[in-house]
């Protein structure tokens, strides 16, 4: 459920204090656990270390991120990959094709010399 328009956006006071009066180049990485805080226009250019439950992942705030939450850019789950046996076969074929193309490129360079 979204936040009431009457209340306005939730921006953490602690984060605003940390960036207040500083330039993005000087501040370095600002560590935070406040994933639910929305990104304000004043935060553009700053680097935040947003906690994902295990580590602080570095997030560089850009203009397109304004209005989103900090937690959206610090994923809590790590995607490994889909597939099993079939996926392994496809990856093996792709690797073999890359090796073959590299060998043919080497042969072409050797013929030119």
The spatial strand order of the largest sheet comes to 1-2-3
Taken together, the total number of domains comes to 2
Compressed to H and E, one letter per element, the order equals HHEEEH
Give the number of DSSP strands: 3
Round the mean pLDDT to the nearest integer and report it. Answer: 90
Q: What amount of the residues lies in strands?
A: 5-15%
Topology:
Blueprint: H1 13-19, H2 24-27, E1 29-32, E2 47-51, E3 56-60, H3 85-112
Parallel strand pairs: 1-2
Antiparallel strand pairs: 2-3
Explain what the structure shows:
The chain is α+β, with helices and mostly antiparallel strands and 113 residues long. It has two domains: 13-73, 30s Ribosomal Protein S19, Chain A (2-Layer Sandwich), CATH 3.30.860; 80-113. 35% of the residues lie in helices and 12% in strands. It has three helices and three strands; from the N terminus they run ααβββα. The protein has helices at residues 13-19, 24-27, 85-112; strands spanning 29-32, 47-51, 56-60. Strands 1-2-3 form a three-stranded mixed sheet, with helices on one face. The longest helix is centred in the last third of the chain and has 28 residues, at 85-112. The protein is elongated and about 70 Å long.
């Amino acid at each position: 459920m979204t936040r009431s328009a009457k209340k306005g956006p939730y921006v953490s006071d602690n984060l605003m204090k940390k960036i207040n009066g500083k330039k993005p180049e000087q501040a370095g990485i600002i560590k935070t656990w406040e994933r639910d805080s929305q990104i304000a226009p004043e935060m553009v250019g700053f680097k935040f270390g947003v906690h994902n439950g295990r580590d602080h992942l570095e997030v560089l705030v850009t203009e397109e991120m304004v209005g989103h939450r900090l937690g959206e850019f610090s994923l809590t789950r790590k995607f490994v990959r889909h597939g099993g046996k079939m996926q392994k076969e496809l990856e093996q074929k792709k690797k073999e094709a890359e090796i073959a193309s590299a060998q043919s490129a080497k042969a072409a360079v050797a013929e030119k010399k």
